[in-house]
Amino acid sequence: MDIGSDELSIETPASPSSTVVMGVAERERTSPLEIEPLYETIDPDALDRLFPNDGSVRITFEYSGYLVTVHGNGHIEIRDVGIDIGE
Fold this sequence. Notes:
Layout: E1 5-9, H1 16-28, H2 44-50, E2 58-63, E3 66-71, E4 75-80
Antiparallel strand pairs: 1-4, 2-3, 3-4
C-alpha cells in the first residue's frame, strides 16, 4: 500500500457507497456523520447499482479531499488528492 492511500475490498454486505463513506471517515479519524454527505459528490444509489460488476467498469471521483476509485471487482482505493496514482 502506498503512503497516503488506503485500499479497501468489499468483503461484507456493505454497499460501495457505505464503504466509501466509512473509509474516508476512517482516514479522517472521525465519525461518518462528521464528513460531507456522499450525495453532494455522487449519487450513492447509482454507485451501488454499478458495482460490483464484471470488472469492466471503474469510476473515479473526488470526495471530501480524497480521490476515490471504485473498481468493478469491488476493490476501492482512497488516496489523498495530492498523491499521484503512478507513485
